Amino acid sequence: MKKQIAAIAIGMAMVTGMLSGCSGSDQGQTTKAAETTAKAAADTSKAEGTDTADTEAAGVDAYSVGGNLTLGTASSTGTFYYVGAAIGNAVSNAGKLNVLVQSTNGSNENVAMCQTGDIDIGMGNCDSLYAAHNGEMSYKDAGAQDILEVASLYNSQLHVFVNEKSGITDISQLKGKKVCVGSQGTSYLFINEALMAAYGISIDDIEPFYMDYAESAQALADGDIDAAFQTGGYPIAGIQQSAATTSFRMLPVDDALMDNIIKEYPFIIKTTIPAGIYENQANTEEVETLGYQTCLFASSKADEDQIYAFVKLMMETLDTYKDTNDATRQISKETIATPYIPFHPGAERYYREAGILK
Q1: Of 57, 82, 96, 112, which residue is the least packed, with the fewest Cβ within 10 Å?
Q2: Is residue 321 situated within a structural domain?
Q3: Residue 7: left if φ>0, alpha if ψ -120 to 50, beta else—which one?
Q4: Exposure of 282 by Cβ count < 10 A (0-12 exposed, 13-18 middle, 19+ buried)?
Q5: 164 and 263 share a domain?
Q6: Is the distance from CB of 150 to CB of 297 less than 8 angstroms?
């Protein structure tokens, strides 16, 4: 995907118009799911030297910290991008730090770009943070990556959806079908394959396609594929665009299978997609599915004062962008410091200074 770098002069009106919602009812579940990794992350944080003994900022005025800071998001038609734009716009307007938003291929590419210094902060779901930091799952061969958590933002939902005309009503019917399993570079490809395996379907049993949100929705509308797996805070803008003229059905995930997957991947939660959240949606009842917390992360090499300033300004300007959409409405001091991996020292400094971390 061609990268698009945009200074955060992006208007808040565009952000509001492109994305209007994301589930706000899963925050308690998200916090509960994180409890299984929270203690380990906190202990590791101390072991890795990210615990800040002095809880007061070392005389740094966050509003005077300058320079450029690049934030890697995902597809320009997805929730990551618009939430990143809302945050970056607020931070840039508040102080001297200039935040640039970059569209990317998603979580895994953001991890890689943090390693090379092409971006300073990346957005990713908690599965990506956990896997990359620990060298597990999709990072088993590559090994542990140099990333630390910056913030925990909002809940994203797995969308498994089909064209209503297809007659497909269950994930078990996807064997032998043309299926978009996500976009290249996204962290949840691993989980999507694990979910299909729970239904007895391997990647060899389907014809896999790799597309972003808008591409997969349009391909379903045109009949070029039979189903798509995409993860994002609902309603995903790229899906909304095609839903205006096509009736999509969201496929539920079996409750017992979700329990099994959550046992193996405790950072995942159960969540739902409401009926009617997309125009012409065929579902008349809410759809049970998997959920992930969307987070911000950075390399340990990222400038500590810039990360501190970014987080402080992000939280102190929250009222200016919180009502942009339901995704930003989930950002709060109660959940912002939910740990999935150890915190970056700049972020931890702010959380301790603000009394969010003790």
Answers
A1: 96
A2: yes
A3: beta
A4: middle
A5: yes
A6: yes
